Amino acid sequence: MVCREGCSAPSVLSKINSTNRLTNKTRPSIFNHMVEQRTAALDSVFHALADATRRSILREITRRERTVGELAQPYNMSLAAVSKHLDVLERASLIERERRGTSRMVRLNPKPLRAAQDWLAYYEAFWSSTLDRLQMHLESTQPSGQTAKKKEK
Q: Under 8 Å CB-to-CB from 97, ≥6 apart: which residues?
């Protein structure tokens, strides 16, 4: 079918080159929410760990649970600023806060750290083997009798 100028009918070529037949419109799209949730959780853990103050706070509460005031004491910042850091840690599920009387106790929740450690362990194995191969290569290309250290003069 050849279409003349001004023809409004779709051409045969546009039908042949259409990708509509590749799209299955009868099935609803499937979205893996578990992957997205795990990725978001891991992202929030690494975001929380990206700040030195938050890492220091986590280090403090590994020893024992502390009050917000105790956590704020070593830092030159207001309780409100420390509370914002605690909010980030709490959103990442790295800490749990509990009200006891007039105090807010903060304790570590180590479970999200395990997920981050597992993720890092995969890459540690990769880098360890890569660095081992690099070391072996460098040692094999070194002239005999020469050590890794510079010769003493």
A: 86, 90, 104, 105, 106
| CB 45, CB 115: distance < 8 Å | yes
Pairwise CA distance, residues 71 & 90, whole Å: 14
User: What is the domain-level CATH number for residue 94?
Assistant: 1.10.10.10
The answer to whether position 143 is within a domain reads no
Q: Does a structural domain hold residue 3?
A: no
31 DSSP 8-state letter: -
CB atoms within 10 A of CB 51: 13
Domain span at 60? 41-112
Query: What is the reported pTM?
Result: 0.59
131-146 pLDDT, tens digit each: 888 888 888 887 766 6
106 within a domain of the structure (yes/no) = yes
Q: Are 51 and 85 in contact (CB under 8 A)?
A: yes
For residue 71, give every residue at least 6 positions away whose Cβ sits within 8 Å of its Cβ, in sequence order, or none. Answer: 57, 60, 61, 82, 86, 106
102 is a domain residue: yes
